[in-house]
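Hello,

I think I submitted the heme C job twice by accident. Can you confirm which output corresponds to this input? Input:
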Amino acid sequence: MVSAASLHAVFQQILSERFGKGVLGLALLTTLVACSGEPEQAPAVPEPETVTVEEPATRLVGAADITSAADNNAEWLTYGRTYAEDRFSPLTQVNRDTVGDLGVAWYFELDTNRGQEATPLVIDGTIYFTSAWSKAFALDARTGEEKWRFDPEVPGRYGVNACCDVVNRGMAAWGDKVFFGTIDGRLIALDRESGEVAWSAQTADPELRYTITGAPRVIDGRVIIGNGGAELGVRGYISAYDAESGEMLWRFYTVPGNPADGFEQPELEMAAQTWAGEWWELGGGGTVWDSMAYDPTLNLLYIGVGNGSPWNHEIRSDGVGDNLFLSSIVALRPDTGEYVWHFQTTPGESWDYTATQHIMLADIEIDGRMRQVLMQAPKNGFFYVIDRINGEFISGNNYVEINWASGLDPVTGRPIETEGSRYVDQPSVVIPGPLGGHNWYPMSRDPVTGYVFLPTQNTSYQYANPGTMEKQTTGWNLGLDGTPREPSNPEERARSAAMSPSSLIAWNPSTQSPAWRVDYPVLGNSGTLATAGGLVFQGSADGVFHAYGTNDGAEYWSHEVGDAILGGPVTYELDGEQYVLALAGQGGAITLSMGLFSGNGPRYLNGRLIAFKLGADMQLPAAVPTPPAPLDVTGAVTSGDPLAGALQYSNLCFVCHGPAAMSAGSIPDLRFSATLLSQDAFLSIVLDGLLEDRGMVGFSADIGAQEAEDIRAYLLQQAAAVPR
Ligand code: HEC
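Support: Only one job matched these inputs. Its output is below.
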């Protein structure tokens, strides 16, 4: 038993480590700045200048702007730059000859070390972007100076619903507003000029475990937004809101609810025929958490639909049926939300194989014929080319090594599954694993070569069927048996381990084959940006920003930024100068759930938005690594069972703190946590939620004191094994 005073000392230490002197310093600085002015006195009114042209206060963003965004060099108006989401800029100032002169023009420091996944927008000389915990920022695009910031004050307890870090991938713009979603399921509209709330709509029941991390899109004054949560037992849908008023206009459910309650949409009756058991009790999944694209001529909105909830098809649907519209691309009418067609990439999904990955539209030549296509490289490892008029399968090929299927049916595109990959009767090491061959990291496309630049990764996972699922209240509900065990098919595990962890692949969609490839030693590299300067930009998870030749993958330039870049870089032009923006900030699903096994070292840096231009040479402040000292656990006493604790840890904790408690930094590495030394301190955090406001919720709904003590015993064991 520890005294209250020593408990207090432990927390003091945690807090000072956590908030540091930097925060105090900042507060002091703010006070000084506030005092140095003359707040009582009104500033002198300058003589008015003669006004010749009446300019509107705010440049309004309308349908014509986004529809013609491909030719707009100066700005970046929507998540994928155009409705086709090709992330190709016509700018040429930074090119293969000049890129050697590219340097840091300015950087903007964020207030958190959690993952940064946003694609910034650039409108009329201002940058708008979101950061972790759904915060919004507006910066001067010339200088990086802050114009405003907005914190939606998401309660920390919602952090546990975010499967893959409290990230946000960005905003949409329309009229004089910007729009973004929050971790607690709100869609917020801000006035672009002032950063003040224009309206806010609750798009998901806050009592259910929905989160929003994806960027909205706006079509003709309708703000379209989905959500996530299929690891935690929700039912997927996507909704449209009026950009002016925030009124909900339509909602499209991606999976059927209980047939006894009737169907919200006619096609759900058909979809329900492809399900079995009582899936609605489990949620069903099918969340639309990331990708969308729009064809204004066909007036079709394309959405990517996620995995099943729970993952295991045996548990979710008695192992029966395709489970529409899981893992599908669905085409809808953006004005009404009406269903038009679908293409399912993984029927009867059982591996977390979402089809929420980037959807890109292009007109390309296939077999001598121009086709209006839609392209996607979902998690399941196949690159698909689909006719975007009617959803017809054109072609597909695997872009990474896979073992769950031997190929696709050449007519229907349906995968030909390999035996045992469904892990019904025995566990199976499946390639790729739940992180996928490609995750949400945006692709880009070069219209000259026709290549699509695809961030890929090689992962495997041993899936095991527990037969039945005990529902967790706070933890994930995957329907998997997480007991640590030897690989069932070790040769597959070894094959996967021998592959390069990740690559940038230039994929030729006309021939369905790779044109070139750059391999990386770490997992979790950024989205890509292609430019008419003949370059493709990508950040690697080991903290380097690269530019490669679009035609051959030769590296023309690289710059150390000291932190992982995850989201898609963007480029814009201002005063005749081309800027390239990269948002750095390690985190997200790969770093959290793989920890040190992702190849990333621990980082102790706050996120930064970094602007590059030719001739600039600002030095980024060096990363100051402050690795914690190994814990002295010699005196620690525990009655817990470390083996039972390991299982609990893998059920409840590893998704944030990393496998084997080896975190890559943005969430504490528990092997170094002084809280392990005190049973009371540990239980007050792990059961009672002492750090709830900071995103560490209490788990008392799922475990009791004995289970928590087992986890502590396991963590003490891991702490003792830290090399010193
Ligand atoms: C949703 C993500 C998430 C999950 C799941 C999670 N944690 Fe945490 N945990 C956090 C975050 C974030 C912090 C840091 C909070 C802060 O900044 O003070 C944290 C902090 C802690 C701390 C304090 C560490 C320190 O030294 O400050 C302990 C102990 C802890 N977690 C234990 C656990 C255990 C045990 C589990 C599983 C039962 C678990 N956590 C599951 C996110 C998570």
